[in-house]
Amino acid sequence: xxxxxxxxxxxxxxxxxxxxxxxxxxxxxxxxxxxxxxxxxxxxxxxxxxxxxxxxxxxxxxxxxxxxxxxxxxxxxxxxxxxxxxxxxxxxxxxxxxxxxxxxxxxxxxxxxxxxxxxxxxxxxxxxxxxxxxxxxxxxxxxxxxxxxxxxxxxxxxxxxxxxxxxxxxxxxxxxxxxxxxxxxxxxxxxxxxxxxxxxxxxxxxxxxxxxxxxxxxxxxxxxxxxxxxxxxxxxxxxxxxxxxxxxxxxxxxxxxxxxxxxxxxxxxxxxxxxxxxxxxxxxxxxxxxxxxxxxxxxxxxxxxxxxxxxxxxxxxxxxxxxxxxxxxxxxxxxxxxxxxxxxxxxxxxxxxxxxxxxxxxxxxxxxxxxxxxxxxxxxxxxxxxxxxxxxxxxxxxxxxxxxxxxxxxxxxxx
Length: 415
Hints:
This protein has 415 residues and is mostly beta strands. It has helices at 14-19, 25-34, and strands spanning 48-56, 59-68, 71-75, 105-106, 119-122, 125-129, 135-139, 144-145, 164-165, 169-173, 179-183, 189-193, 204-206, 209-213, 218-223, 229-234, 244-246, 249-254, 258-263, 268-273, 283-285, 288-292, 297-302, 308-314, 325-327, 330-334, 339-344, 360-362, 372-374, 386-390, 398-402, 408-412.
């Protein structure tokens, strides 16, 4: 089997790929490549987390959906406890044989693994795609599959990034090559867009055009209804993230150690170098683009001034995969070094606690997923904003901190 992660020899080769100690993804990607023809072994993935609005009997409440290893769970963002299984009237389901309330916990068995967050397709149904592309429709009131899972007819490859759902279609990226559009109701293949290597970033839909990056170095634009290619653009290195669209332009980084500003007709308008490869998506706030690289550095670029650098800081001891979270004057950065950093947005320097030390929190496992911001409001009973991070340690799947001072609020582990 061809090792699809061997990208163009003039940019990368597998020796370099495995030799770079700063790159969090080398071992994970290599393991996935070797297992591309079968189920993924436990421990090779990362948690996927997202906020989800439950609706029952006209009442809405928020939960955190966690997809990791062999299960999907829902967690209360206020206290970190498992969400109790409820019926459509918001009443607790009967307790188990030991008299304990049952938690929302979906485990399909058969060695299935999850790398991607489920998505709601109606008020009562979640759709989840396992690594081996088995697709489950899950009854939210039972945490059970509606019938047998389906696979994608005639398509090989595995699912390691979140799907995109519209009123009519479900877009599924595959880690070996290609992206497919499925009928939302029947899951039949409507079209396939071909790539030379894998698609590891969630696609972006803007005004009828689907944009997605690939390990084959290209950023693609295709017709969202038909899959017909509009253009593709060589980024000089593999790309693993979702492009960001702001004010008629696209922004993305790549393994060519650069961040790009691109027109919607596929022309590079501006680009700036970075020290190391970029894995995650940038974020743009008040005209400033923030992005992190796999060497542990964070950057700010001015989108109104040809992406001119505003500041650059070496923050973490190891790779940063997650997109920085911007809240007011604060930047939150999570790293493979198992630490969460609070930075000043103005210049990227560390925020200092009252004891004179940088505001940093150390966790039990690597942090590979994006950070969630949980705000007080309808469906979330908390006094002030929390931030939630996930780690690869099953003893600390989720951890919540107060946004303003890093106070630990709760922790959730797999039982």
